[in-house]
Amino acid sequence: MEKLRIGLIGTGYMGKAHNIAFKACPAVFPLLASIECEMLAEVNQTLAEQKVKELGFNRATGDWRTLVNDHNIDVVDICSPNYLHKEMALAAIAAGKHVYSEKPLALNAVDAKEMTEAAEKAGIKTLVGFNYVKNPVAQLVKEIIENGEIGNIVHFRGTHNEDYLADPNTPFSWRLKRELAGSGTLGDMGSHIINMAQYLVGDINEVMADLQTVIKERLLLSNSQTENNNQYAKVENDDQAHMMVRFSNGAIGTLESSRIACGRKMGLTYEITGTKGAIVFDQERLSELQLFTNTDPSNRQGFRTILVGPEHPDYAAFCVASGHGLGYNDQKIVEVRDLVEGICADKPMWPDFRAAYEVNKVLDAAELSYKEGRWIKLSEIE
Amino acid sequence: MEKLRIGLIGTGYMGKAHNIAFKACPAVFPLLASIECEMLAEVNQTLAEQKVKELGFNRATGDWRTLVNDHNIDVVDICSPNYLHKEMALAAIAAGKHVYSEKPLALNAVDAKEMTEAAEKAGIKTLVGFNYVKNPVAQLVKEIIENGEIGNIVHFRGTHNEDYLADPNTPFSWRLKRELAGSGTLGDMGSHIINMAQYLVGDINEVMADLQTVIKERLLLSNSQTENNNQYAKVENDDQAHMMVRFSNGAIGTLESSRIACGRKMGLTYEITGTKGAIVFDQERLSELQLFTNTDPSNRQGFRTILVGPEHPDYAAFCVASGHGLGYNDQKIVEVRDLVEGICADKPMWPDFRAAYEVNKVLDAAELSYKEGRWIKLSEIE
Amino acid sequence: MEKLRIGLIGTGYMGKAHNIAFKACPAVFPLLASIECEMLAEVNQTLAEQKVKELGFNRATGDWRTLVNDHNIDVVDICSPNYLHKEMALAAIAAGKHVYSEKPLALNAVDAKEMTEAAEKAGIKTLVGFNYVKNPVAQLVKEIIENGEIGNIVHFRGTHNEDYLADPNTPFSWRLKRELAGSGTLGDMGSHIINMAQYLVGDINEVMADLQTVIKERLLLSNSQTENNNQYAKVENDDQAHMMVRFSNGAIGTLESSRIACGRKMGLTYEITGTKGAIVFDQERLSELQLFTNTDPSNRQGFRTILVGPEHPDYAAFCVASGHGLGYNDQKIVEVRDLVEGICADKPMWPDFRAAYEVNKVLDAAELSYKEGRWIKLSEIE
Amino acid sequence: MEKLRIGLIGTGYMGKAHNIAFKACPAVFPLLASIECEMLAEVNQTLAEQKVKELGFNRATGDWRTLVNDHNIDVVDICSPNYLHKEMALAAIAAGKHVYSEKPLALNAVDAKEMTEAAEKAGIKTLVGFNYVKNPVAQLVKEIIENGEIGNIVHFRGTHNEDYLADPNTPFSWRLKRELAGSGTLGDMGSHIINMAQYLVGDINEVMADLQTVIKERLLLSNSQTENNNQYAKVENDDQAHMMVRFSNGAIGTLESSRIACGRKMGLTYEITGTKGAIVFDQERLSELQLFTNTDPSNRQGFRTILVGPEHPDYAAFCVASGHGLGYNDQKIVEVRDLVEGICADKPMWPDFRAAYEVNKVLDAAELSYKEGRWIKLSEIE
């Protein structure tokens, strides 16, 4: 394969981020194929044509099904709102296209399972955009853990908090409507920290959750996507979510998410405690980690700040000098590298649909736990 | 009253800290009475006499009941292991002495209630050594909240993690035995963050907890206080504890404690989120807080680091210049100031036995929740 | 102009960084012209052809003069070692090409002046790669200063310290030889902090400097670019440089640079003090700044951490959400945007050759000051 | 000696701090003698008597000469304004009393030398209150350096910046008058960072300085100590001072002080670079240091935050648990411990008058350098 031809559905926030990565990735990493930005789909032809020009794609369509079935598309890249992921992915799978989808994969675990099984049966490649695990620092954390440098993991505390809905005057949007978004901050940002916990610690077995909608209704703008004509619409999902979890390897932990966490802009954080050390990370300082190991002399121990550099995973391709710093979009560049390598070399990709289905199972378990006020075993969720 | 005469029981870690505060407090704060270090009690007369000299007290006794009943003692200061608090406090109350006790107040809520009711009935003054709420920064946080500067509280995430038992070779001690210590890290350090949450946010209504003993047995030293002759003793309480809580004002939160948290030395931390701002605090940097308020212009918002200074509560007595920094023992000096003022001016003191009883109720609720796998209302606990 | 055709000389560290920016820039910013990576030059044809494939350029040459004189090149991009900048730039100017050059512009102020005057006479556009001023955070700092938010500047303390030569076993290279590199860390990294000081505070009038070569000789590798056959070569320029400066607006300051500063990886830092506030920045955390303003209530003052976001200069093009973080290469993307806009809209670009010449004057003044042990006025330097 | 009898002159800011230390020190450290707060002197008898009560001393005098000559005083403790240090110290020395003096020792090096020689001739003990070197963290830094853990020192960058005079409306005071205070921020706070540099790195050989008075006049309050009747008085010494220094061991460095540094409350900071590592310290976080050593594996290197604990110098006496934090006054407690031990065990104390004289020499060199625009060798200063 010389070219990997991309069909992008949706050109909003994430569509633009994907496009930056498609364009920059070949200049950063040596790749097995070139990336051809072949076609994009938007909600109508006019917008699609405008975006083709802006984003530097070859062709435009106002109908995503046209894109999915186009013979010159190798990968369908789904950057649409959550509720559309399932239909688009199943259509792409049916058309034999590899699928690169934004997260969360589906509105619930049942749908995610259906998508996963369809993809596996069709033998196509899938990758889901949990981009924070692509950060070279996250990869370094995994390397440290796998080397046993902090011993056996006994605790994980993770958050993904932001404040983009902290202002009660921020109007209603599709993200607040259950049938369009599924759960609230739980699925939106919580899914990232769940995925990170699974990446770094392993399977989650049991969940006990608490959810809360703090701002119970929001102003409905006239151009809202809903049919409701009232001035205010009811917020149908959670603003704050936290859960206690038990991992299959015996570790326990807490996971927390909020979309009303004043002051937090990119509050994906974690502290991982092992029997021999600990790691602390904050995505707002995404190019560094704090590492404590009790193998240092006892009077010289402390958390050390490691700045990511060329001796760490995937950094050298960006810059040969240490500590120069990577950004949000660079994570997507690594993700796109994984996409191209995974498809061209027929290598496993992670997180694929199955891994994303595991996230959806935790989300469903959390909602069920909240409803029933008890621990939910993941095995109770389909 | 010209002199407040102290009777100190126990001269270990906390006994020494109390003594530093007794000696320094009059040089820091103007007080309504002088502090007389009148008598101390230790486990035997020899040790007591040695300690009288070391600590600068007037008299020594090897029998704490002698101290409690001495006519020249105004305040009984209990710095003994947890399981002795109840008996000593009840004796002191019976003798009409004011009581200054280390925390947690009792091994369980039933005992704490008995102690509280006895004290209240006797009309004596009580103060419990949850010293972290005496930090001028904690007082400043309370002032900020009460002023409404961060709006209504919606979330509290607190930890009190240390690593003093992270090493599996650290031997067995009384703290690991249920009948001597009660719960493990939950009561030892968890009680501090529970007390802090109650101080800053208000009453806790419901608790859902998870507990875990990671290091299941430890070497029994020959001079151990237990009668067990085996080489290893079973650890009888929790190494790691976390809980989800619901406050009576509608806020939710998570509280966490660990005594095996590698790298954490004084890991009492909290993040308080309100509808208009947020506060972040870390006791390892005890003289500063992070404050975010959304009343700053939107493109100039950020967490600001406020260094405690003379414009904040209780700092000016220590130093007239800002940012010079207070230490752990300074918190005890504030606590002793409260003790002297509370008794001499007959003012309320906080946290008194009743406030400490509220902590014990949360501890019991957490243990019951863990056992039964469900939310426990505080009203279910006596 | 529809296309801006780039001719890149040099494909090492900086050449790669420029290429990433050329490829990503159009996906980040809407541009007045597309960027065509037309031709690259390397030291021989074989390497050039290999690099053309790697970097995604159209044509290759082993002779940079061919590139400079090619009719299909609009911009000559100079990423070669310092000593070649002058000859290449003068040739490009003579051929009527716009010039985008890495820093420092020249080995000394005399050369820089000649290059500047040639460019201005020819009416071509120039831009020099002092990329740290392109960081949206640096632009925000400038905005804050220009708004008067910190009052009049009274002090600037800047550093650019790294440790890439801290290990005495790191071998000799062209950077350590005066005729190839000019001064040492002074010109290499010191030029960045000088440029930053001029950008943020204004002209420097007087300089007093101290320089030191700590590691006086280094192992000469057999493939070294020098003709010397001895095993060790003498280091001919400074490892550590610091200077006191006086700005034309009355502020004073210190500037420091080191290439042997153990632990510093990207130690470009500054603290700017004004009559009403202060700003602190550290390039190792390139997406945030610390701002103190004395207009906050006196008991709520503190340095606040502002995370760069869409309300700040140039960030929104990268990401619509705050605090997601930019990286080193993103600065070059902004720089390339300035290049394209400057040329296509015939707008001024900064730092152009004249601004870079001002940096070279400070470098020369520092060396003269060290030699003569006295303050040097910039007016003493040609 | 069973008792060390203190005579305190001056009960302002520093007098109170000394008193806290006198009272707390015996409860923190086992001492060779008890400390008797015997007599204090204030500007008149009324104030002295009020202060005796407040501070818990035995006797009062309105005439410091009475105190100096009292037979029941062992140590004269000088906490008066700078210009009085010399007269008081010489009188105390003449009376055969040990002297504990606040810093800077004298208004100039000539006076400091006279005081030093008088003390040495009389064989009395002296200690000067450069308390920041008593911080256990500073002692730990010295230990790390002396162990060779960061190799040979090549660079020291130190600051002592505060903002207590940043507001131009802050009125005139004796600190701004040359005959009462000597130099400005240079001697006031700069003396601390000079002393710290000498403590940690060694002798300073050469100095090149720049000084600046930014706020040239200030409002004269009616109760001002000067005789001037104008509304505004001219500020006679420096607001900002910085210098480049060369140490006798070959290291170079920069030292900086400001009393108008907006946002800095206790900005004594330093970064020490060695051939094998580096140390960073900030007095605003006085209980921690950052240590980088290049003996860590290259892909695990980073500055580690060491929290001071019982394995480090002098901490265990304050608290047996790590990371609980020391405060400003605790440094004075260590200083007083040194005073008592030095006198009672006839051990050397540091910094004594001779060490403080070395600070005064650097201060004079800095002023001369500024005046003459050239490097000044310390040997040029008497």
Structural topology:
4 copies of one chain form a homotetramer.
Chain A (H helix, E strand, L loop, with lengths): L2 E7 L3 H16 L5 E8 L3 H11 L3 E3 L2 H5 L6 E4 L6 H10 L3 E4 L7 H14 L3 E3 L7 H11 L6 E9 L16 H4 L3 H4 L1 H11 L3 E9 L4 E3 L12 E3 L5 E8 L4 E7 L8 E8 L2 E6 L5 E6 L9 E5 L20 H17 L8 H20 L3 E2 L5
Parallel strand pairs in A: 1-2, 1-4, 2-3, 4-5, 5-6, 7-12
Antiparallel strand pairs in A: 7-13, 8-11, 8-17, 9-10, 11-12, 13-14, 14-15, 15-16
Write a concise synopsis of the structure shown:
Chain A has 382 residues and is an alpha/beta fold.
CATH architecture of the largest domain in chain A: 2-Layer Sandwich
Poorly predicted runs of 5 or more residues of chain A:
none
Q: At the first level of CATH, what is the class of the largest domain in chain A? A: Alpha Beta
Q: Please list the strands of the largest sheet of chain A in the order they lie side by side.
A: 16-15-14-13-7-12-11-8-17
Mean pLDDT of chain A: 96
Number of discrete helical segments of chain A: 11
Fraction of residues in β-strands of chain A:
15-25%
CATH topology (fold) name of the largest domain in chain A: Dihydrodipicolinate Reductase, domain 2
The Cα radius of gyration of chain A reads: 21 Å
CATH superfamily of the largest domain in chain A: Dihydrodipicolinate Reductase, domain 2
Give the H and E element order of chain A.
Answer: EHEHEHEHEHEHEHHHEEEEEEEEEHHE
Cα end-to-end separation of chain A: 38 Å
Shape of chain A: globular
What structural class results from the helix and strand content of chain A?
Answer: alpha/beta
What is the oligomeric state here?
A: homotetramer
Q: How many independent structural domains of chain A?
A: 2
Q: Largest interface, with Cβ-Cβ < 8 Å?
A: A-C, 41 and 41 residues
